[in-house]
């Protein structure tokens, strides 16, 4: 959760108070309707009761650019799209949206430290067509897990605020099912429509 430095807050509780005092006037950028960035913000709105104006962009790049320029005020940006701007002081991180603090920004609290139960993470993975032979899926899984176990890959992901989650195809299917169920509830509640 990052804000433009002109937003007069430094913590999540201050942001909630600011947004509450300015209902519908705080602009929330996203990388597009229905993206993880959008639904993360919608879940925050639902859990805190704040009213923010959603401003969808065609990707994270344009959204972050306008956030840096002060055209919008807040974004529930992914770490890879925002961490370097936080480090450079061009954006202010109020919190990370993961369940635990990030080793990449250890002094930045989680949203859940202030909003009980809040957790939003982007999951990136590899998939194959439904009828791909099991031996090919297993071979791909083995090779991808080996790459994710490489020290250089782990270090680069950590630098970007990410965590490698190696596992089986069944582990990934379970994670996708849980994630789909979680975000479907937010999408229905917020009446989100993809353009």
Shape: globular
Order of helices and strands: EHEHEHEHEHHH
The main sheet comes to: 5 strands, mixed
Number of helices: 7
Q: What portion of the residues fall into strands of 2 or more residues?
A: 5-15%
Helices and strands, with pairings:
Elements: E1 2-3, H1 12-21, E2 26-30, H2 36-48, E3 52-56, H3 60-69, E4 74-75, H4 79-87, E5 92-93, H5 134-149, H6 151-159, H7 169-190
Parallel strand pairs: 2-3, 2-4
Antiparallel strand pairs: 1-4, 1-5
Helix pairs in contact: 2-7
Can you summarize this structure?
It is built from 7 helices and 5 strands. By secondary structure, it is of the alpha/beta class. Helix 2 crosses helix 7.
Task: Tell me what you see in this structure.
This protein is α/β, with parallel strands linked by helices and about 200 residues long. It is built from 7 helices and 5 strands, in the order βαβαβαβαβααα. The protein has helices at about 10-20, 35-50, 60-70, 80-85, 135-150, 150-160, 170-190; strands spanning about 1-5, 25-30, 50-55, 75, 90-95. The protein has a 5-stranded mixed β-sheet, sandwiched between helices. Strand 2, helix 2 (about 35-50) and strand 3 form a beta-alpha-beta unit. It is globular and about 55 Å long. It starts with a strand and ends in a 5-residue tail after the last helix. About 30% of the residues are buried. The mean pLDDT is about 95.
């Amino acid at each position: 959760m990052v804000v433009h430095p002109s937003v007069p807050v430094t913590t999540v509780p201050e942001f909630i108070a600011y947004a509450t005092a300015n209902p519908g006037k705080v602009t929330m950028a996203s990388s597009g309707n229905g993206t993880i960035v959008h639904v993360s913000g919608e879940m925050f709105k639902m859990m805190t009761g704040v009213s923010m104006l959603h401003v969808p962009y065609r990707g994270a790049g344009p959204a972050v650019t306008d956030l840096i320029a002060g055209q919008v005020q807040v974004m529930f940006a992914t770490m890879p799209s925002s961490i370097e701007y936080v480090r450079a002081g061009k954006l202010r991180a109020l919190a990370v949206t993961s369940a635990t603090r990030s080793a990449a920004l250890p002094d930045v609290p989680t949203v859940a430290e202030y909003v009980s139960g809040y957790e939003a993470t982007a999951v990136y993975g590899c998939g194959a067509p439904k009828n791909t032979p099991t031996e090919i899926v297993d071979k791909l899984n083995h090779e991808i897990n080996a790459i994710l176990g490489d020290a250089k890959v782990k270090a680069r992901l950590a630098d970007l605020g990410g965590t490698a989650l190696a596992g089986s195809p069944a582990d990934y299917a379970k994670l996708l099912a849980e994630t789909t169920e979680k975000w479907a509830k937010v999408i229905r509640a917020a009446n989100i429509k993809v353009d």
